[in-house]
Amino acid sequence: MRATSVLLGLHLALAVAYENNNNQKPLGNPRPNPKKKQPNIVFILTDDQDLHMNSLDYMPLTKKHLIDQGTFYKQHYCTTAICCPSRVSLWTGKQAHNTNVTDVSPPYGGYPKFVSQGFNSAYLPVWLQNAGYNTLYTGKLFNAHTTTNYDSPFPGGWNTSDFLLDPYTYDYLNATYQRNHDPPVSHPGQHTLDLITAKALSLLTSVAASPSPFFLGIAPVAPHSNVDASSLTSPDANISTVQFTPPIPLARHAHLFPDARVPRTPNFNPASGPSGTSWIRRLRHQGEDNVEFNDHFYRQRLRALQGVDELVDAVVRRLDALGLLEETYVFYTTDNGFHIGQHRLQPGKECGFEEDVHVPLVVRGPGVPKGREVEGVVTTHVDLAPTLLGIARGEGDGLEFDGEAIPLTGEDVDAARGRRHEHVAVEFWGLALNEGKTWGGEEERVALNNTYKGARVVGEGYSFYYSVWCSNERELYDLTTDPYQLRNLLHPDEKAHVPATILGVSFDKVVARLDSLLFVLKSCKGTTCTRPWHALHPAGNVLNLKDALAVRFDDFYLTQQKRVSFDRCELGYIVDAEGPQFEKDGFAYRQGTPWYEWV
Fold this sequence. Notes:
Layout: H1 4-21, E1 40-46, H2 60-67, E2 71-73, E3 76-77, H3 83-92, H4 96-99, H5 110-116, H6 124-130, E4 134-139, E5 160-164, E6 174-179, E7 185-188, H7 192-207, E8 214-219, E9 226-228, E10 243-245, H8 288-321, E11 328-334, H9 354-357, E12 361-364, E13 372-374, E14 379-380, H10 384-392, H11 410-416, E15 423-428, E16 432-433, E17 446-447, E18 452-459, E19 462-469, E20 474-478, E21 501-502, E22 505-506, H12 507-521, H13 527-530, H14 532-536, H15 545-548, H16 554-560, E23 581-582, E24 588-590, E25 593-594
Parallel strand pairs: 1-8, 1-11, 2-13, 3-14, 4-5, 4-8
Antiparallel strand pairs: 2-12, 5-6, 6-7, 9-10, 11-12, 15-18, 16-17, 18-19, 19-20, 21-22, 23-24, 24-25
Helix pairs in contact: 1-7, 1-8, 2-8, 7-8
C-alpha cells in the first residue's frame, strides 16, 4: 500500500539536508562514560492517541518494530486525561495534585506554571544528565510553551532541543520549531510530521559516535486535532476563538482507509439512554450527520498516524544502521487517550472513561521479552520517570516518586503479579472541550465543572472505576460485568442494575472501601500513592481491595471513615475546595482540623 523504501529514502534525504543546515554542537556538557555501559533510550510520545478505537491496528510498522519486538503493557493508564498535566506527571513521576500543573495554560497549567513550580530544574532530563546522559528532544514539550516565552527561561535539562511552540504547535502545515537557543523558525507549507522525522534522524546521527549514552525524546503532535490558535495572540482571545478541525495527514496518506469508521461498541452513541453522570448524562443522541462527520474525524486521525508509523520505522532503521539498536530501549506511548462518540461525547478527552485514560505503552530493548502482552500488571504514567531513571542507573539523590518502576524483564513481570499496586489515581480539574463540530451551537464547545477525582482498580477477579465529582455526584462502574461503562451504579436512574452483592459482600461495603481508597489517593504523596492500603492499615495486613473487604474491617469503613467530597468546583487545584484530606501520618484534616474532631 505504501512504498516504504521510497518513503525511507525521503526521510533520509530530509535528515541529511537538515543536518547540513543545522551543523551545531550540542549544548551542555554531559559526564562522559567511555565504556558506554548504560543503554540508550528513545522515547516516542504521541498526542491524544487512542487505544480503545484500535489505532495501533492501523500502524503496521510500529507493530513490526516495537510490538512484535517488544512488550505491550495492556493495562497502562495516564493519570490526568489532558496534555500538559499528563506530560508534567510523566516527566516528574508525580501526580498532578503534587505538581499543581493541572491545565494546559496559566494560571493553573502550561509551561509557565511548570517553571513557577520549580520543575525546570527537577525533572527527568536533568536527572538523566546527572547520570551521564546526553539528552535530546524534538517536538511538543508542554502547552503554553510559546514563541514569546520560549527563552523565559529555556527548558532545563536538554543538551540539544528542537521544540514545537504555541500557538502553532497543532498547525500541521505551519508549525514553528525552536532549536537550542536559536530564535523560532516557522515552516509554512511543510508538514510537521516530515519535519519532526528529519529532526529526529538528525539528532540520532549527531550522537551516534559519542561515548556517552543518550536519551532522545520524540513528540509528534499526531493524531491531535489540527488547531488554529493564532487568535490567542490577541488580548481579547479566549477558547471560543480557537478553531479545531480534524488532523491533517500527509498528502501521501490522505486517501487511505476510506471505509474506516469509529468502532460501533455498545457505548458508541447509545440510543437506549444516557450514561455517566453530571454534564455527560445530559448529552443528546447524535444525529446521522453528526456521526458521519465523527467517522471522518476518526479516519483523519488514522491517516495522520501513518506519518508517526513512518517515523517509528525511520528511527528504528537508523538505530540499526548506526549499530545502536540492540543497546537501546525504545518506549512508545501517548499523553492521554481520546473519545469519539462513546457515551454520546463529541471528539475530545478529559474524562475518566477508559477511552481517555487507558492508553498504549510498548517497550522494546535489552532484556525485554519479544512479542509479549502483559496483563494483570497495572502501570501508569507516573511510573515512567522512575523506570527510565532506573534504566539509566542514575543516583536517586533522594527523589520521591508517586509511582514505581515498571517491570521490564519477563522475570520481573512475573514477580510483579500480585505484589504490585492494582490501582490508578485519576484526577482532573476544569473544562471539558469539544474538538469536533458544535452541532447544538457554541454552548456545546465547553463543559464547565469537569472537576473530579477517581480510582481505577484492576485486581484478581474485579475491575472497578469509582469517582467523585466537584458537584459531589458519584459514579461506579463494575467493568467485569459492564466493560463499556454504561451503567453508573451510583446514579438514581440505575437502581435496577445495582447488585445485592459484589465479590461476596454487600454492594455498600464495596463502595465504602473504594471511597476510602480514593480518599487516600486524591491527595497522596510518594509511596502512599503506590501503597494506599498501608496508609489505612499501617499494620500491613491489607495489600489490596480483596484484603480490605474482610468483615472485621466493616465498622472501620462503614462508620469511621470520612467520605470523599468537594466544598465547591474550581478550575484548578485549590486545596480548600477539595474537602477533607488525608496525610501520610494517618491523620485526615479539614482546613487543619484533626480527623478526631470531625469524624
